[in-house]
Structures are given as C-alpha cells and as structure tokens.
Amino acid sequence: MKNADLENRYGAVLNAFRRVYPDPKLALRFENPFQLLVAVILSAQCTDERVNSVTEELFKKVKGPEDIIRMSDEELENLIRPTGYYRQKAKSLKGCCEVLLKNYGGEIPTRMDELVKLPGVGRKTAAMVLGNAFGINEGIAVDTHVRRVAQRVGLSDHDTPEKIEQDLMKHIPRDLWTWFSNATILHGRNVCKARKPNCGECPVKEVCRFFMKSGGV
C-alpha cells in the first residue's frame, strides 16, 4: 500500500473513533495504580467482567503490595481462581509485589523500562497502567481486540503485538496513544468481534480492508 493511502486510512480511523469513542474508559474497575496493575495481570486469558467480580472481593482484603505478600499462596490462589491460570497469576502477583516493596517502596514506577521488569508485566500491561493510571503515553497497549482491529482494518500487516504496536505508534500522535488503545478495545469488543464482526454498524468500514475483501457484507 502506498504511504498516502495508509495515512488516509489512519486519518479516517482516528476521525471516526474520535466521533464514536470520544472518552473511552477501560472496563476494568480500579481506584488507584496498584489496583489497575493487579487487575491487568489478572485479565490475561480472562474477561474483564470476571476480573471485576474477582477484584471486588480481592480489594476488600488487599490495599497494597504488602497485603499480597502476607497472604498465603493458598488464600491468594483461591481468591483469584475464577480468572484462570490462578497459580501462575498468584506467583506473578507475589513476585511483582516483592519487587515493588524492595525497589520502589511499594509504589508503582512510572517508567516503561522499570514496569516491564516486574514479574507478570509486559509492554501491554505497562502501557495500560501508565496511560490510564498516570496519564503517561509511553506505548499503545495491543491486546487481542487491538490486534484484531488493526489487522482487519489494515493498520498493520504484522502478527506480533510488539510489531503491531510499532506500526501504530508511527502513525498515531503520541498524545492519543492511550485514547486510541482504549477506543480500539471498545470497538473490538462491541463491533469488530472475533467470530462475527458487525460490519454494518462499523464507522470505519469504508476504509476497512476486511470489509472490502468480504464484498461489503
């Protein structure tokens, strides 16, 4: 695709999403950066609705990293069991909290290079926490929804979240990175669904490669 065509596609998507998703919010419920970090770690391979159900009870007992450290493995695993992969997630949470207490006084670091060193934290998690808890645009969180939308619409031809993120960051203004990720997650969840995309109601169908290849159905 010519650079001009790609820029036009990005421009059309940004304009449409600004209109439809002016102030997108994460579905995960949180009151502070620590809660968001925990919720995003638990959200791997799990729906936001289930995570919210689990954290509603978890955060009654857990106010900070020291509370997770004091908790027995069995108790923590039982509390987060509904999110799946609970043993690995419990291990990640405990390891993460240990590093937070040892190196950061229990506070959440506000730099990407420090966040991604925490157990259980990759670029997606770090970008979500930085953008939504601190208002810092250090990356674009590429979850399954963002990945699907970017590939279908034609914003990236890559398969890995890392390379898709690099493509997106080249064309989207930095101050829009968190907004774009949140908006695209909503679009992927509500319109550009994995099994049956609702192309008829899609505000970007006119520039969507998937829509055009499917014959405009």
From TrEMBL:
HhH-GPD domain sequence ranges: 42-190
Domain of life of the source: Bacteria
Cofactor(s) this protein requires: [4Fe-4S] cluster
Pfam families noted in UniProt: EndIII_4Fe-2S, HHH, HhH-GPD
Cofactor comment text: Binds 1 [4Fe-4S] cluster.
E.C. number(s) listed in UniProt: 4.2.99.18
Gene Ontology MF annotations: 4 iron, 4 sulfur cluster binding; class I DNA-(apurinic or apyrimidinic site) endonuclease activity; DNA binding; DNA N-glycosylase activity; metal ion binding
Catalytic activity: 2'-deoxyribonucleotide-(2'-deoxyribose 5'-phosphate)-2'-deoxyribonucleotide-DNA = a 3'-end 2'-deoxyribonucleotide-(2,3-dehydro-2,3-deoxyribose 5'-phosphate)-DNA + a 5'-end 5'-phospho-2'-deoxyribonucleoside-DNA + H(+)
Keyword DNA-binding: yes
Amino-acid positions noted as binding [4Fe-4S] cluster in the UniProt annotation, renumbered to this chain: 192, 199, 202, 208
PROSITE patterns: ENDONUCLEASE_III_2
Any GO BP annotation: base-excision repair, AP site formation
Keywords: 4Fe-4S, DNA damage, DNA repair, DNA-binding, Endonuclease, Glycosidase, Hydrolase, Iron, Iron-sulfur, Lyase, Metal-binding, Nuclease
NCBIfam families: nth (TIGR01083)
PANTHER family documented for this protein: A/G-SPECIFIC ADENINE GLYCOSYLASE/ENDONUCLEASE III (PTHR10359), ENDONUCLEASE III (PTHR10359:SF18)
Family: Belongs to the Nth/MutY family.
Role: DNA repair enzyme that has both DNA N-glycosylase activity and AP-lyase activity. The DNA N-glycosylase activity releases various damaged pyrimidines from DNA by cleaving the N-glycosidic bond, leaving an AP (apurinic/apyrimidinic) site. The AP-lyase activity cleaves the phosphodiester bond 3' to the AP site by a beta-elimination, leaving a 3'-terminal unsaturated sugar and a product with a terminal 5'-phosphate.
Protein name per its UniProtKB record: Endonuclease III
Organism per entry: Thermodesulforhabdus norvegica
Organism lineage string: Bacteria, Pseudomonadati, Thermodesulfobacteriota, Syntrophobacteria, Syntrophobacterales
